[in-house]
Write a structure and sequence with these properties.
Blueprint: H1 2-18, H2 33-61, H3 64-77, H4 79-88, H5 92-107, H6 116-120, H7 130-137, E1 145-148, E2 152-155, H8 156-168, H9 170-174, H10 177-194, H11 196-205, H12 209-229
Antiparallel strand pairs: 1-2
Helix pairs in contact: 2-10, 3-10, 4-5, 7-8, 7-12
Length: 240
């Protein structure tokens, strides 16, 4: 099943790449803009007919407290990825925070459904991934913006980081492939539900949603990298 999904994504990428490309003036951070806009248009169709309807049903069926519990459990599931990447960044404090968050939330937080650590200690959540790790060691050198089929906004650095993070997560090797896919799909639905209002606002107020989303994503990623590299230099809101 997983192999079929990968082949489907590769097929979509091939079809998009072969489609006629409109003449778009690219910007330095977005050298693949013509290609990206076509993938963006494809994602809009998928979102309209699949992702958003599923997210709306998810919001309708589950009360907010249940959705928060699912989100907490998903964050706890990916906590080992944060810990490993913090170690790769030589950020021992963040690694220990992630370790104790995982231990406390898995036990006293009922498998992570309740953010016990965040609510009762100073151990606040902040996600780390391999894209951020590369950004830290490359002194935050900008990476080319890239829109991925289904997955949406990314960069060439972050796209590579996604693959590495799958290997870094011990649950990848502990769970069956079907279970891992189910968790990834659940995270996708949860993330899309949380973004319903924001995305609606972007489409209601922006003349070009593509550039607005691109700008927001790149700024968010830069803030995450800076917050990881020099956490005391600048204050950023919780953007994970």
């Amino acid at each position: 099943m997983f192999k079929k999904a990968v082949l489907a994504v590769l097929l979509i990428q091939g079809l998009v790449a072969c489609a006629p490309v409109q003449d778009v003036a690219t910007t330095p951070e977005d050298p693949y803009e013509p290609f990206n806009r076509q993938v963006f248009a494809f994602n809009e169709v998928v979102d309209t007919f699949v992702l958003r309807p599923v997210a709306e049903v998810y919001r309708f069926v589950l009360p907010e407290v249940a959705r928060t519990g699912v989100s907490n459990a998903l964050s706890n599931f990916y906590e080992p990825v944060t810990m490993v990447n913090a170690l790769l960044q030589l950020d021992g404090e963040r690694a220990m925070t992630s370790f104790w968050r995982f231990m406390l939330n898995t036990t006293l937080g009922f498998g992570g459904l309740y953010d016990f650590a965040g609510e009762n200690t100073e151990l606040k959540y902040r996600g780390e991934d391999f894209g951020q790790t590369i950004g830290v060691w490359s002194d935050n050198t900008d990476s080319a913006y890239l829109v991925l089929p289904i997955l949406g906004p990314s960069t060439t650095r972050d796209a590579f980081g996604r693959v590495v993070d799958v290997g870094l997560n011990p649950w990848t090797w502990a769970l069956e492939s079907g279970e891992s896919i189910a968790i990834a799909v659940t995270k996708g639905v949860s993330d899309r539900e949380k973004a319903i209002d924001l995305i609606d606002e972007i489409y209601d107020t922006s003349l070009d949603p593509y550039t607005t989303i691109r700008s927001g994503y790149l700024q968010r990623r830069k803030a995450q990298i800076l917050n990881t590299h020099n956490p005391k230099d600048q204050a950023y809101p919780n953007i994970d």
